[in-house]
Structures are given as structure tokens and as C-alpha cells.
């Protein structure tokens, strides 16, 4: 029994006439009559009474048609669901990210993704770059946003695309001697109590600070360690020292604090979006497409990945 048999039976019940039903289906009457007869033999019951007044469902036919209508509705729904999933309109997306990415540019990407793909289930996991890389390689994430290009076993399978550039800035309390100054010289940092992110979480920033201040610099070895940017800013607001972090901190102003540039300007590792190139998830494809439209600097690299095989620019 095929879906067309169900459609033929429903059309015959609707039109109560083989000729009219055949015309509505776009087939000749003899094939329709044969298909209905074949269906009745397969079911093992007469489904229609053929009378001079027309063709009408029997009791068996009425029971059959009720189920047939629901079955066709399910087939239609299944086809619709499959098409939506293939377009990345449903399913799930597992995203790992560092907390500072929520300052910029992740909010713009997530807002647009939620608006255009409201039926995709987002599974969001805040985690350090090193952990998100391992999760990507293990297949526990679909995409990750972290600092710098992933390294380690399996990282060669990942495609990494910079989505934001960054540099080092300082934050102090508005009662700090440097409050109100547009910049702070590196030499001054060597005489300050510092507040920094833990090296285990974000080794890329720790490396940049060691390169700037020296590997065994006393301010670094005695620095207060804060797990995230908001804690760095909060501790600085309390007057506990000079908080150091990425320029994305400027997007999180807090009363009682002052941000200033570090001179000379100290670049930090790029904020990088990474994913496994073998992951064919349509939801991932949709997320990358939205990222391409949201972050122009990432567009060329993502364009190459999203283009169909053999396509030319």
C-alpha cells in the first residue's frame, strides 16, 4: 500500500464518482478503478459501494478513510519537518563560549540567529578556550568561540575564523590616581597591584601579559586572579588594583570605574570562532551563515566553507 492509494481513496470519497475523482487526480478513470480494486483486495474488505447514485464509502471504507486522512497528514508533516531540518530551521546547536564574548560580538550573532531560527534549540555552555577546543574535538560541541586558534590533539580538524580583534586595556576605580587619564604606560603597571584572569583558563592572555611585563614580573606573580571580566571590573571598582583585560571590557561600563588604554598598544589574541569541518549539521551551517552576515571580517573564510563543492566565486 502506497500513499497514492490513500489519496485515490480520499478523492473518490470526496467526489463520489470515479470519473470526477480521476479528473481531480489528473489520471484516467480505468487506472483509478483498478487501483481502488487493488486496494480493496489488499485491505480484504469492500471499501466503496458502487451505485447508480454514485460511489459511497462502506462502513469499512469510512473506518479506513479516517485513518488514511491522518496518515496522509502525518506524511505531509514528516516531509515538512524533514525539509525544515535540512534548511537548519529546526534541530539543535551546541555552542561553547568564553564569557567576554557575550560583551561583543556574540550578542548580535545570537540575537539574529534566534530571530531567524526560533525553532532551533540552543545549548549554550560557558567555558574556557582550552575546554571548548577539547569539547569540539570530542564532538560535544558544534561550534566554539574562544581566544586564539585552537591547539592540541585533533585541532587540525577544526576550522578557525577570527571574528573580533582585541587589545589590552586597564580598569581602575574612579578614586585611583590614574582615573581620568586616557592611557597608562606599561612602566606604571610594574608598580601596581594587578587583577588578571587565571592562566589555566585563558593562557593566551597570560602569555601576552608575560611578554609585556616580563615572565617573573612581581606584579604578575602577586596579582589577584579573577575568573571573568565582570569580576575583574568589580574588584577594580573596589579599589583593589588595576584590572587588565581585553578591550571588550569597554562594553561593560560600571559606575565608579575608569577605563584607559595601555601604551604601547598591546594586541591580544583574536576572538576566534571554531568548528569541525566534518560537521554537516544544517543548524551549524545556518549559524555560520548568520555569522558571515554579521561579522564582515569573517565573511571570506566562511564563504569558502559554506559554498557548495565546485562552486566558484
TrEMBL record:
User: In which family does this protein belong, per the annotation?
Assistant: Belongs to the LysR transcriptional regulatory family.
Keyword presence, rRNA-binding: no
The record's section on Gene3D superfamilies has:
Periplasmic binding protein-like II, Winged helix-like DNA-binding domain superfamily/Winged helix DNA-binding domain
> Do you know which InterPro entries this protein is assigned to?
LysR_HTH_N, LysR_subst-bd, WH-like_DNA-bd_sf, WH_DNA-bd_sf
Q: Which UniProt keywords apply?
A: DNA-binding, Transcription, Transcription regulation
Q: Which GO molecular-function terms appear in the entry? A: DNA binding; DNA-binding transcription factor activity
Q: Which Pfam families match?
A: HTH_1, LysR_substrate
Q: Which GO CC annotations does the UniProt entry carry? A: protein-DNA complex
**Which taxonomic lineage is given here?**
Bacteria, Bacillati, Actinomycetota, Actinomycetes, Micromonosporales
Query: Start and end of every HTH lysR-type domain?
Result: 1-58
SUPFAM superfamilies in the record, alphabetically?
A: Periplasmic binding protein-like II (SSF53850), Winged helix' DNA-binding domain (SSF46785)
User: What protein name does the entry list?
Assistant: DNA-binding transcriptional LysR family regulator
Task: Tell me which domain of life the UniProt entry assigns to the organism this sequence originates from.
Answer: Bacteria
Amino acid at each position: 500500500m502506497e500513499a497514492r492509494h490513500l489519496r485515490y481513496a480520499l478523492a473518490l470519497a470526496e467526489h463520489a464518482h470515479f470519473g470526477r475523482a480521476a479528473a481531480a487526480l489528473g489520471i484516467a478513470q480505468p487506472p483509478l478503478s483498478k487501483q481502488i480494486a487493488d486496494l480493496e483486495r489488499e485491505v480484504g474488505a469492500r471499501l466503496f459501494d458502487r451505485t447508480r447514485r454514485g460511489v459511497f464509502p462502506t462502513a469499512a471504507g469510512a473506518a479506513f478513510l479516517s485513518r488514511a486522512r491522518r496518515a496522509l497528514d502525518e506524511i505531509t508533516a514528516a516531509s515538512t519537518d524533514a525539509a525544515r531540518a535540512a534548511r537548519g530551521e529546526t534541530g539543535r546547536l551546541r555552542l561553547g563560549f568564553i564569557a567576554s564574548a557575550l560583551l561583543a560580538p556574540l550578542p548580535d550573532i545570537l540575537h539574529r540567529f534566534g530571530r531567524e531560527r526560533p525553532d532551533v534549540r540552543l545549548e549554550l555552555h560557558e567555558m574556557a578556550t582550552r575546554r571548548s577546543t577539547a569539547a569540539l574535538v570530542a564532538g560535544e560541541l558544534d561550534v566554539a568561540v574562544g581566544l586564539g586558534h585552537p591547539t592540541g590533539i585533533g585541532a587540525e580538524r577544526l576550522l578557525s575564523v577570527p571574528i573580533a580583534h582585541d587589545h589590552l586595556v586597564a580598569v581602575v576605580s574612579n578614586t585611583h590616581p590614574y582615573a581620568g587619564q586616557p592611557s597608562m604606560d606599561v612602566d606604571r603597571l610594574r608598580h601596581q597591584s594587578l587583577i588578571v584572569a587565571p592562566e589555566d583558563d585563558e593562557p593566551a592572555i597570560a602569555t601576552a601579559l608575560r611578554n609585556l611585563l616580563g615572565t617573573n614580573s612581581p606584579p604578575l606573580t602577586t596579582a589577584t586572579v579573577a575568573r571573568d571580566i565582570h569580576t575583574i571590573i568589580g574588584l577594580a571598582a573596589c579599589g583593589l588594583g588595576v584590572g587588565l583585560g581585553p578591550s571588550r571590557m569597554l562594553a561593560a561600563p560600571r559606575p565608579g570605574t575608569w577605563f584607559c588604554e595601555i601604551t604601547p598598544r598591546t594586541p591580544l589574541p583574536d576572538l576566534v570562532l571554531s568548528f569541525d569541518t566534518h560537521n554537516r549539521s544544517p543548524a551549524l551551517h545556518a549559524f555560520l551563515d548568520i555569522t558571515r552576515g554579521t561579522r564582515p571580517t569573517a565573511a571570506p573564510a566562511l564563504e569558502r566553507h559554506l559554498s557548495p563543492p565546485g562552486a566558484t566565486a
